[in-house]
């Protein structure tokens, strides 16, 4: 059986590590913020301490066996209901998966702190923070390049053809996904819908500027 100061130290460490991960979520104004992550981490820590040491007084009793891993396993599966509460469907976008995974990781950190695996708990916290904060700019940059960008061009008929557009697109001509020209009510004027995929915002803006500067183009939106 560990002493009271050791128990207190493990709980405080779990609270500290949980707050570090929770702060990263808090600054992005997610539903599960600092307090939620701290509670999950401290609760997991206490559960595994109770599982490992709370029943020591009945050890040795006939027909009684103790498996401390059982309560830890229930934490791993039971934390799912909290994670599910952070996941939201907005249109065709699923939000909150990262926060749910963070809660699951924080529960594991609490278990590690509760069993005295301090190095593992601290190292996991550092890795989780690196994933949440450090990888986000790289992920955002990739998504920016991967998203589809669309244009609606109003121009004099024959002014903008697919060959002209490919010429204006330069090295991104292969990223031209769609080109649809339709006549408008105004004689000799066409509306052209254009889509690009995997094109950086800066290059897309340059194409838009080149189109707006071209003779015969009425509008680009």
TrEMBL record:
Keywords: Cell inner membrane, Cell membrane, Membrane, Plasmid, Transmembrane, Transmembrane helix. The keyword Cell membrane applies. InterPro entries: MgtC/SapB/SrpB/YhiD_fam, MgtC_SapB_SrpB_YhiD_N. Its main location: membrane. It comes from the Bacteria. It holds the Pfam family MgtC. It is a multi-pass membrane protein. The chain crosses the membrane at residues 38-59, 71-89, 101-133. It is found in: Cell inner membrane; Cell membrane. Coiled coil: none annotated. Residues 11-140 form the MgtC/SapB/SrpB/YhiD N-terminal domain. GO terms for cellular component: plasma membrane. Belongs to the MgtC/SapB family. This is Protein MgtC. It comes from Methylobacterium bullatum.
């Amino acid at each position: 059986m560990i002493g009271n100061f050791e128990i207190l130290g493990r709980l405080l460490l779990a609270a500290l590590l949980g707050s570090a991960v929770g702060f990263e979520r808090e600054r992005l104004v997610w539903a599960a913020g600092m307090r939620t992550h701290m509670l999950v981490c401290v609760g997991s820590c206490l559960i595994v301490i109770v599982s490992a040491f709370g029943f020591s007084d009945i050890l040795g009793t006939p027909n009684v066996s103790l498996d401390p891993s059982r309560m830890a396993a229930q934490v791993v599966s039971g934390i799912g209901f909290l994670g599910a509460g952070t996941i939201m469907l907005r249109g065709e976008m699923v939000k909150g998966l990262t926060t749910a995974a963070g809660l699951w990781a924080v529960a594991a950190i609490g278990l590690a702190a509760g069993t005295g695996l301090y190095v593992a708990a601290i190292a996991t916290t550092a890795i989780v923070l690196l994933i949440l904060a450090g990888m986000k700019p790289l992920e955002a940059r990739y998504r920016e390049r991967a998203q589809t960008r669309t244009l609606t061009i109003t121009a004099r008929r024959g002014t903008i053809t697919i060959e002209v557009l490919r010429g204006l697109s330069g090295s991104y001509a292969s990223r031209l996904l769609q080109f649809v020209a339709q006549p408008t009510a105004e004689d000799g004027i066409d509306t052209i819908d254009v889509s690009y995929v995997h094109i950086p915002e800066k290059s897309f803006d340059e194409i838009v500027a080149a189109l707006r500067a071209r003779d015969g183009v009425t509008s680009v939106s």
